[in-house]
Amino acid sequence: MKFTSNRSSNCSTSSQNLKEARVKHELAKLKVKQVNEKLELEQKQRQFAEDLLLLDAKNELECSELETSFWANEVEMEGEMLDDVHVSNVGPKVKVEDESPSHADRGKEVHSGKVENKIEVNAKKPPQVNTYPLNPNAREWQGAYIPDPRENGGADPFQLCNMLNLLTSIPKPELQTFDGEPTEYWSFINNFDFNIGSKLFDDRAKLTYLVQYCRGAARKSIEGCVVMGSTEGYKKAREILSDQFGQPHIIAQSLLSKVLERKPVKAHDGVALWEIARDMRKCEVVVEQMNYSANLNNTDTLLGIQLLLPIHLQSEWAKQAQRLIQSGVEPRFVHLTEFVERSARAANNVFGKNISKWNKPSTETYRPKGKSGNNLPRRATFATVGKEESAVRCYCCSQGHLLHVCKEFKAKTPKQRKELIRKQRLCDNCFKTNHMARGCMSENRCTVNGCKKKHHPLLHAENVSSQGSKRDGTVQNVPGKEEGDVAENTANYNATSSVRKEHQVKLCTVPVKVKGKSGKSVTNWALLNNASDVTLCNKQLIKELDLGGKQTSFELSTVNDKGIQQQGFEVSMTIESLSGDEFVDLPKVWSVDRLPISSKSIPSNNDIRGWPHLEGIELPSIGDQQVMLLIGGNVPEVFWVLDEKRGGRKDPYAIKGLLGWTLIGPTGVSRSPSKFTVNHISHVEQVENCWQSDFTDLGADSKVGESLEDKRAHKMLENSIKLVNGRYEVGLPWRYPMPYLPNNRVVAEKRLSQLKKRFQRDDNLLQLYSDVIHDYISKGYGRKVTEETDNTVDQTCKVTSDSGNSSEQLNQSPPQHSQGTQSEAEGADEAYVETIKWYLPHQPVLHSRKPGRVRVGFDCASRYKGICLNDQLLHGPDYTNNLIGVLSRFWRDSVALIADVEAMFHQVRVPENHSNVLRFLWWPGDDFSRPPVDYQMMVHLFGATSSPSCASFALKQTAKDNRESFSEEAVRTVNESFYVDDCLKSVQTKEQAVALVKELRELLHRGGFRLTKWVSNSRDVLETARG
What we know:
The chain is of the alpha+beta class. It is built from 29 helices and 26 strands.
């Protein structure tokens, strides 16, 4: 038994080993097969590469043989002509002029040179010379006739040789490569055909060169053609290149993309203007050669290019386009190209380049003929400049060392040292710029006699406590007391002092009427300062004009300070001369806390008296003697000099600009030259300013200023809004006078069929979705399109058709005059809008946190023929309150109120003629077996780019129209405490909250709005709100 067991065990082991051996054998066979296949493929790859190399070598050899044979025959021909030998029938043949019947005579004429050469080049055999005499009895033989170049005034063979030598000596044309860029296709093909295709007759050689001069995607696309026959392969390669890279629409789109996809051109940027002009000209030439100009003259293309131009050129193009339209010519791409080229030439000539140099004022001023000019006084109040790092320089001796080690500085008295520090505007503690001692971060303190004050030991002096009043704005000089110590020893004030100079100097100030976008206007003084490259205003002026702007930070540099970081608002405003004759737009104005310009610098009629050359000038005067506006060189027209009156040197002179007369220069001696002016700030004011900086939104609202499009949209909303049956109706703010919206019903049908498949898989979703549709219909948000409605649209289309355009043309092609500029068009042609039919695809929108609820989402961004509804609408101004401001006011008081406007967008209706662009499809009776019919929404939709602006405008209009019937608190709540459709308000007492709830309900109800979802931290208020 034991032996049998061992045999059995051995057999099983052998069987297992045999199986493993067979598996290894099969794996080895498979590996051998794979290696053989790999080697075969590598061999084919090497063979393919070798064939290509061999083909290139053969081509070069054939070209060399052809060139060698040609020049060998040329040399042989020249030798025969010079040696006057007989030529065999293989080499150059001669035809002797037949002037006598004798062959012998003709033989003599050969030696006399009267022969007609007929040259035939044989590339296979060298020419042979026949030395046997001619047979006089042989019949005359004539070969193929080749005309002599000398006939008809041609050049002789020597001139031909010189010409060939010249052609071989000039540089060869550079062969262009092609990497698949469609815009370079035709340039490459023309270059290839001229330099290679026209000189080679073998298609295989052409194909080889074609592959050689292609790169990237172009080469990959035609590499496989080399394995085909020569003619077939070359033809196929050309077809592939043409199909993939040479289609007219591909080239046109690529050229247009290069024109449109770029940053807008800045004003007076001549280089960028030439770049866009060159790209436009290239696009126009190439597309015209292809006879494919469909996309070039598209309205959207022209409008897109117009928006790339500076504002002043956009306006100029609008005027030129209007002139073309009035003359019966439709503005085209070529017109815009010529306009941009002219503008580029003007911007790049010597006068155009000089426009951008206003921030580098010339040292010479305007001087009338016959008068010697006085230099204008130099003014430097604010100027924004770039930072420049300089090497270490002593402020005392200008040597390369620090101030505190300067021997010359140490030799001065403490008083002289402090005067130098004040003059250089340095910190008393560390002797560095851009800050004062009280804000110095250095830990160093004065160590003289245990002083420990925040000034350098070199500035220490024994001080006597100051006497006199600190609140009257006057500081008396005390022996041993330095001016700078006032700030250090005063507990309640930070003071800086300055001594008034001997003469009163009048600056270039004029009174102007300042207007804001809100319609408010104030009259203030403005300083015209051409040494500043920005325009600044006092922040108080923004509050008076009720302006909103973008909060920004900027750096201001003065004469002695390299740069001081400032926080303010960027706003726009308009100024007007007091006479009302001139208006000047100020598109970019930065606000500052204050403008350090004394009222003593404002001229008056009293300053004119006693100066004979100023007689006859009447300076306007206003009540407020404070300069609130500083106009810099970025508004150059205010510095135009229309007239001037000058006296002698150092005398004041008057100039008249767009804004009126002003006086500049010293007008007399001050009566109190020793008086000091102290600018002081109390600690209480500093604390208040700190709190105000944390809650900036409680004051000025940091809204972004309106653009030109926003202003257009705002005007359209104002003109179209009206109250109809207790709800506001606001028209859609159209971007163009004649919107282009082709009939896209086919898109809506396709999207509806996809939605149908989804509903067939989910009956519950269908039920929820159809309930929402029916709810829209029952509430009047939407309606079914009847035959009467469609007939009205068709009749309108017919009327439009009778006037010159068919309804099909109006709805299927861009309107001819839809290129009206944004600055000129105030709204769309209502009769034309009524003819448009546009369908909105829709789909269910689900929320993970609201199961069982579904919203109908209308796709206003759905495109058909590259157009969508949102493209044709303006976004509109942002009437939404700043969220931080709303929350800051909400946290202010103890009793809180929160509410929500129910379906805010759907409470604002659209005009009936605009509802044709808000159509959608649905099955009658929710029956999929029946064809879908047309419905249309009658309200503003979620998804339309203009809806937030229109709804917010209607909400604020409700408060505006009913402000006389409700309390100021209720009106202010609607204007300031709503963030979109959410109300967040807080009041001090419950009684105030209850009263406010009742007023808000009634106020918004008059505009068709309903407040729901009330929340409050007071139970009594909540019961009133929900009651």
